[in-house]
Design brief:
The structure holds two protein chains of two kinds. Chain A has strands at 4-7, 10-13, 19-29, 34-39, 46-50, 54-55, 63-76, 86-93, 98-101, 105-109. By secondary structure, chain A is an all-beta fold. The chains are: A mainly beta, B mainly beta. The A-B interface holds A 1, 32-33, 35, 37, 39, 43-47, 50-51, 56, 88, 90, 92, 96-104 and B 34, 36, 38, 45-48, 51, 53, 59, 61-62, 95, 99-104, 106-109.
Chain lengths: 110, 116
């Protein structure tokens, strides 16, 4: 079973700053099957990035994803007030079909 | 636009079965994708519970497999979760979602409390 570790647990930044979030897998995974979700308080998660680097529909270009193998990164180039939230990485294994989430990184206002 | 909506009881007694249904609109659950259940205890992270494919095959989180059953009703475009022998640790927000490599559409979620 693949485990995802996210770091840091909490990131304290100011609006306009750059945020770099890490997701590390316990074994190599296909980039096709790595996604990032954003969750704001009281809301359901929202898909941001799939295939490690493709933005989902309607996601601003300040969000970007990168990485391969066991190390993946979500970058928010300039934080907007609405970006302060919790971010989860998620991976998918095809056989048998299973999904796993990281424990989350909270991006909070400094 | 694909929309998902969870429904079910807000309170379940310990040792009983937690039943939830997800009603899908805007896409037929038998046309493609997986249809999954994910939960989130208050203040904690996301946990995948299980999924059902467009052909009706199921897969479950190994940590919950002995207590979980997911089924579907294609005539109503719904899929359902049953979680048996619940305890207080099953108290959580429960979400249904459409999944492929990523969960791309989510329901709003429903809070279920396990308590006597």
């Amino acid at each position: 079973e693949i485990v995802l570790w996210q770091s840091p647990g909490t990131l304290s930044l100011s609006p306009g700053e750059r945020a770099t979030l890490s997701c590390r897998a316990s074994q190599s995974i296909s980039s096709k099957y790595l996604a990032w979700h954003q969750q704001k308080p009281g809301q359901a998660p929202r898909l941001l990035i799939y295939g490690a680097s493709t933005r989902a529909t309607g996601i601003p270009d300040r969000f970007s994803g990168s990485g391969s193998g066991t190390d993946f990164t979500l970058t928010i180039s300039r934080l907007e007030p609405e970006d302060f939230a919790v971010y989860y990485c998620q991976q998918y294994v095809t056989s048998p079909p299973t999904w796993t989430f990281g424990q989350g990184t909270k991006v909070e206002i400094k | 636009q694909v929309q998902l909506q969870e429904s079910g009881p807000v309170l379940v007694r310990p040792s009983e079965t937690l039943p939830l249904t997800c009603t899908v609109s805007g896409y037929s659950i038998s046309s493609g994708y997986f249809w999954g259940w994910i939960r989130q205890p208050p203040g904690k992270g996301l946990e995948w519970i299980g999924s059902i494919s467009e052909r009706g095959s199921t897969s479950y989180n190994s940590s919950l497999k002995s207590r979980v059953a997911i089924s579907r009703d294609t005539s109503r475009n719904q899929f359902s979760l049953k979680l048996n022998s619940v305890t207080a640790t099953d108290t959580a927000f429960y979400y249904c979602a459409r999944g492929g490599a990523a969960f791309d559409f989510w329901g709003h979620g429903t809070m279920v409390t396990v308590s006597s």
